[in-house]
Amino acid sequence: MNILYIIFYILSFICILLNLYFNHKVTSVSDNKKKKIFYVISNIVLFIGPLTSFFGSQIEGKISNKELNKNIEQKSDSIKDLLVSNKTLTELVLKNTNKMTSVGSKPKLIVGNAIENGHKTQLIILLDGEYAIPNLTIQVAVVPNYSKTNGMDIKTIADIQPIIPLGTLRPYELKSYFVSTVSNETFINVLLKSDNENWYEQVRIIKNNKGRFLFYTSFDKENNVFTNRIDPDFPTNKEGKYTIWSNESKSRQELGI
Question: Beta partners for 121?
């Protein structure tokens, strides 16, 4: 469209020059006719020029708007692709971070089989969660005949075992550890540690002529009890409560079960 503008501007300029020429050089009737004809042509050119400029600018404006909209759409698509890429990258970083820090995962303790006529009992540790727990260690403290032991004395009388490395605890993988359960009543305190967190589990085991019975207690990060699991036939004292220590007993309601 710019070329048309230039052509019409040149023609308009030529018409102006010729008008000036005829105004000064007309000497005959024929020249006067030529002058009139040229006036008509020049006026037409001068009239068409602005119209062409107007409509040309309108067309060019539409083309520019169309190209602008196209560029905006292309940039919008690029921004969308960038946002999707950023979201994917963020999710990947978050997943890797969760994997490195084992977010949402914790070890779960289960009492396994007894060997040597019940004198040793297997503790099984499995993963509860999606992400593996690296550098897991276990430390166990054992108190035999706990129902005859004052709860205030366990730190001094407990048989504290050395820290044992268990390695990385992965999904569908089991770790095991054997503890002494020679007496008919055994309290086991289990401390599980990784690079980022600690977990506490306690198990009370009673053996009698009816079998073996288990009482689990789990603690949260603040070392508060958050769950108790007790076998239905776990023995109770004369008051119908569960013996925690010689100086402490609790009912099912007090235990929250």
Answer: 114, 179
State how beta strands 106-115 and 133-144 pair.
unpaired
- Tokens standing for residue 80: 């969308």
Least confident residue range of 22-36, 54-68, 93-107, 178-192: 22-36
Rounded to a whole number of angstroms, the CA Rg of the chain reads: 47
Q: What is the pLDDT of residues 85-95, one digit of tens each?
A: 666 655 554 45
Collapsed DSSP state (helix, strand, coil) of residue 219: strand
Are 201 and 218 in contact by the 8 Å Cβ rule? The answer is yes
Q: What is the DSSP string of 28-58?
A: SHHHHHHHHHHHHHHHHHHHHHHHHHHHHHH
CA distance 11 to 52: 13
